[in-house]
Specification:
Elements: E1 4-6, H1 30-34, H2 36-47, E2 75-77, H3 81-91, H4 100-115, H5 122-135, E3 143-145, H6 147-158, E4 160-163, E5 166-170, E6 176-181, H7 186-190, E7 197-201, E8 204-205, H8 211-220, E9 225-232, E10 235-242, E11 244-247, E12 251-258, E13 261-268, H9 275-288, E14 293-297, H10 306-313, E15 322-328, E16 331-336, E17 347-351, H11 358-369, E18 373-376, E19 384-391, E20 396-405, E21 421-422, H12 427-431, H13 439-449
Parallel strand pairs: 2-19, 13-14, 14-17, 17-18, 18-21
Antiparallel strand pairs: 1-5, 3-20, 4-11, 5-6, 6-7, 7-8, 7-9, 9-10, 12-13, 15-16, 15-20, 19-20
Helix pairs in contact: 9-10, 10-11
Length: 451
């Protein structure tokens, strides 16, 4: 998998379930609005040149930091796990020896701490223990999050930070390449492009630098402008890039006209904290224009906050509708829309194999409860829910805690959501990514123009 990094100041995980925005920006760059699949194709080409991570399940999912948990519940452990457990049991007057497994863990923890010939770093000891325990779960979505992933993960879900507005990766030859550029960011305005190779920042040679080193330089320096030398099409270019507050725009919209119908179109790249505000703003704008139907495009959208997905779905369904269910060790629970009305116009959802997690919750809810037409390819099939835990020493890990089910109680885990109209993206689009060659989009427009 790609070792991606967003250059930005490190942030602490917000202690809540979620509800606001992250990933691209501006009122809508025509190229992005017309053909989001173009960026997906560009990213895949870069990912093919990056070293792959080992021992990670579902490696065909190239998102790495973009593979976002459906549900995020942050819990902070203020002291070492072992110490907490001991204190808890002593305070409650319980005998810790009643749990032979916990007793064995603590016995070995004490033995290592007291008998190792050097001073033991207790933070690392506990982190290693947690990593080892999670490693036995045989679940690709349960793992300790490294520093590189944690930064990018939190930024994309938060939706804003101070930096230049790029996401970078190390290619397999060690070079640093731009994987993504946030719309209307300083990098976007300066003319940087996806696929550019960063050769130098100021006088620092980035040829064999890690993404962590590059991002730390940008975020830690007091400078507000950088001289960036990049390689593009085997030519070097020098650009000046400012460091500013970056608000990541993740939602774009436009209107198509066909057969006398106005067809609204909304593209969303991730279910971030502020995505709901952007989505609702674009939807209101389209409805004021008098659209007859709507396309929601979640191709390449790897997921995000469950609360964001819930609030977006609730814009279309009233509170009588179930929008998803969860299954926790056989115990099922239904979750209903919080909306006040059910929209009347036809909806089509565009998805592909990289539409995962919260994207699949949206597709399933609208397909089963709104009778929306799902167009494109079978979705990824991430039907599990993860919870994120942050230890007091800034170690973060997530584990799968439950399955999520469609409104009708179907599990899509490992299966994905089957589209009503299955259509593969035209190979010609990869060669010339203009919206006229985006046959999935054109099919959705054609379907809605006839309703």
């Amino acid at each position: 998998m790609a070792n991606k990094k967003v250059e930005e100041p490190k942030k602490k995980v917000v202690k809540k379930e979620s509800a606001k925005t992250p990933t691209k920006k501006k009122v809508i760059k025509k190229e992005t609005a017309k053909a989001p699949a173009k960026k997906i194709i560009q990213k895949k080409e870069i990912i093919e040149k990056t070293p792959k991570k080992e021992n990670v399940k579902n490696s065909e999912n190239y998102f790495s930091t973009l593979e976002v948990v459906v549900l995020i519940i942050s819990s902070v452990v203020v002291s070492l796990v072992a110490g907490c457990l001991i204190t808890y049991n002593l305070n409650k007057g319980k005998n810790i020896n009643k749990d032979k497994y916990l007793s064995e863990f603590l016995k070995n923890y004490d033995y290592i701490n007291n008998n190792y010939y050097k001073k033991v770093d207790k933070d690392k000891l506990i982190a290693g223990a947690i990593k080892g325990m999670i490693g036995t779960l045989d679940d690709g979505y349960s793992y300790v999050i490294d520093e590189n992933e944690s930064d990018s993960f939190n930024i994309r879900l938060d939706g804003e930070y101070k930096g230049i507005g790029v996401e970078i990766v190390n290619l397999d030859d060690g070079r640093v390449a731009i994987y993504d550029i946030f719309e209307d960011s300083p990098a976007d305005k300066a003319g940087l492009k996806i696929g550019d190779i960063i050769k130098k920042i100021d006088d620092i040679d980035c040829t064999n630098s890690s993404t962590i080193d590059v991002s730390k330089y940008i975020r830690n320096t007091a400078k507000e402008e950088f001289k960036v030398i990049i390689e593009r099409d085997k030519e070097e270019k020098e650009l000046k890039v400012k460091k500013e507050k970056v608000v990541i725009k993740v939602v774009n919209s436009k209107i198509y006209k066909r057969n006398g119908k106005k067809i609204g179109y909304i593209y969303m790249s991730i279910f971030s904290n502020i995505a709901i505000n952007q989505f609702e703003s674009e939807l209101n704008k389209l409805e004021k224009e008098g659209i007859d139907s709507l396309i929601i495009d979640v191709r390449g959208n790897s997921g995000g906050h469950l609360t964001t997905a819930t609030r977006i779905i609730s814009l279309f369904l009233d509170s009588d509708h179930v929008i998803y269910q969860t299954d926790t060790k056989g115990k099922k629970q239904k979750f209903y829309s919080t909306g006040k009305e059910t929209k009347k116009y036809p909806i089509a959802v565009l998805q592909n194999h990289d539409s995962a997690s919260a994207s699949e919750i949206l597709s399933a809810a609208l397909q089963e409860e709104y009778k929306a037409t799902v167009v494109g390819e079978n979705s990824f099939g991430k039907g599990t829910v993860q919870e994120l835990t942050t230890l007091g020493n800034n170690i973060e890990y997530k584990i799968t805690t439950k399955l999520w089910l469609t409104p009708k109680g179907k599990s899509i885990n490992g299966k994905g959501i089957k589209p009503d109209v299955e259509i593969q993206l035209n190979e010609e689009y990869g060669k010339n990514p203009i919206e006229e060659k985006d046959n999935q989009l054109q099919e959705a427009i054609d379907i809605l123009s006839k309703k």
